[in-house]
């Protein structure tokens, strides 16, 4: 295959991997998240967690339990390829609505993922991910109001299989990476 065409295909596959991570995180879809990492991959969330990605995913149900809303938005994607190895600096805006003992708060983080990817058995997956926060804004109490009359009757997203996307889509299925 033409090397330029292969590079485009590889970059597209990695971009889809990054977006699948955001979707799986936002929907609390831990089965799907596991598919995105190689078994020996690592994850570095700073003092929050550093170790094997599968161990981090094991802890996510408890970590995400108070998170009523997670919404990751990828902005800038910088990728560099070298055969079956790639690196990415991925800019992300991540919104969190979190329940606390005092009520709910909004946390908006602007940051980056420092990623290393490996293509094994023809499939790109994360081999290493580090999360960097560049800025954060906290609003307490939460400014989110899904009960406002302008929203009345709208389909509302939520974590987990009750999210409307799971009953709507046939191809974008729970626990599976987009093929």
Automatic annotation (TrEMBL):
Cited SUPFAM superfamilies: NTF2-like
Domain spans labelled SnoaL-like: 6-129
Pfam families: SnoaL_4
InterPro entries named among the record's database cross-references: NTF2-like_dom_sf (IPR032710), SnoaL-like (IPR037401)
Domain of life: Bacteria
Protein name: SnoaL-like domain-containing protein
Source species of the chain: Halioglobus japonicus
